[in-house]
Amino acid sequence: MRLTILPLLLVFGDVPPLRDAPPLPKDTLDDAQLSGVSALGLPDQVPGVESTPEARARLELGRKLFFDPILSKDRTVSCASCHDPDKAFATNDARPLGVGGERCDRNSPPIFNRAFGATQFWDGRASTLEQQVLMPIEHPHEMALPLPEALARFAADPGYRGLFAATGAPEPTNDALAAALAEFVRRLVVGDSPIDRFRAAKGTLTPQERRGLWLWESKAGCWKCHAGPNFSDEKFHNTGIGSKDGVPEAARFAVTGDEADRGAWKTPTLRMVAKTAPYMHDGSLATLDEVVRFYARGGNPNAQLDAKVQPFEISDDDVAAMVAFMDALSRSGDPPPPPEETDAEEQVVPNAAPAAPAVKRKAL
């Protein structure tokens, strides 16, 4: 053994410890998952989805690019590394790995249903998907590849040159790259959960799930921010996450320069939320149980805490019910679970309130 190791040490010197490598998920998507067709609970049409040959060509190119580490400086990171299809297009890392062992600045949010989004990123710094998809490529803690270098790689690859040409781009350009990746992301649609079916009178919920829905729509007040078909108002709120000694992070302020936006991060979707732990922009809450209790105590105090974040009383059973509700939002297209076994007294569960009455919404 010594005779084997000694020559290696003489040649290579001290070998540094291996860094964790970012995952490189494979493309296991079914073509139907990229049809761009809407689902129960969502608007009838997905904005921007077309059925033209050029659009299909953009999708083919964008799909290949999404899983290819060619977009990262050291060819170790793909878009799917931070947005894994098997993890609801997110990761289970508080801050996922980027190139060279760097950690991304924030927790990676899921990217499905982004066609319905008003802005992109936790701080809303991109107003379109075409803007959003290019930013991680050049970010030094993510993929760290200057766009001119990326285009040069494609120009030197006959396969990619052909895919770009099929989209109508004579040669690889920033706009063609953005259009292809945005085409892929735009078609990632999730809906048709047990909650959607229950609201449409097409399915049932367990008593626990139904109680969680009632709590969400009543004393917990979650609907005030987690509103609309994607369970997000697409607005920015200071909940105190990330604040230190009562001082909030820059957050949305870094984009707008408006002091009122300090500590304000975009409301994430609750769809598929049970699959995207940990939570918040910094991944600081490990479980949905922690998230519910965080809001029940009224968030983290700071000078600019959003007025919508108010403490409320909650029992352990209530917490479990709200987690069950969010778990139901995380099952898309699955058959409903069998009803829970309950005794007669436990079956007296408040009916689910209507989906945030219009009058109540306008009052806010």
* Order of neighbouring strands in the sheet with most strands: 1-2
Q: What is the average per-residue confidence, as pLDDT, rounded to a whole number?
A: 89
N-to-C SSE series? HHHHHHHHHEHEHHH
CA-based shape: globular
What is the multimeric organization of the chains shown?
single chain
Beta strand count? 2
User: What percentage of the residues does DSSP assign to strands (E)?
Assistant: under 5%
Number of helices: 13
CATH superfamily of the largest domain: Cytochrome c-like domain
How many domains make up the coordinates?
Answer: 2
CATH topology-level name of the largest domain: Cytochrome Bc1 Complex, Chain D, domain 2
What's the end-to-end separation, in Å? 73 Å
- Characterize the biggest β-sheet: 2 strands, antiparallel
How much helical structure, as a percent, in the residues?
25-40%
CATH architecture of the largest domain: Orthogonal Bundle
Low-confidence blocks of residues? 1-18, 342-364
Identify the CATH class of the largest domain. Mainly Alpha
Provide the gyration radius in Å. 23 Å
Helices and strands in order:
Blueprint: H1 2-12, H2 53-67, H3 79-82, H4 129-138, H5 147-155, H6 158-166, H7 174-186, H8 194-199, H9 207-217, E1 236-238, H10 253-256, E2 264-266, H11 288-296, H12 316-328, H13 358-363
Antiparallel strand pairs: 1-2
Helix pairs in contact: 2-6, 2-7, 4-7, 9-12, 11-12
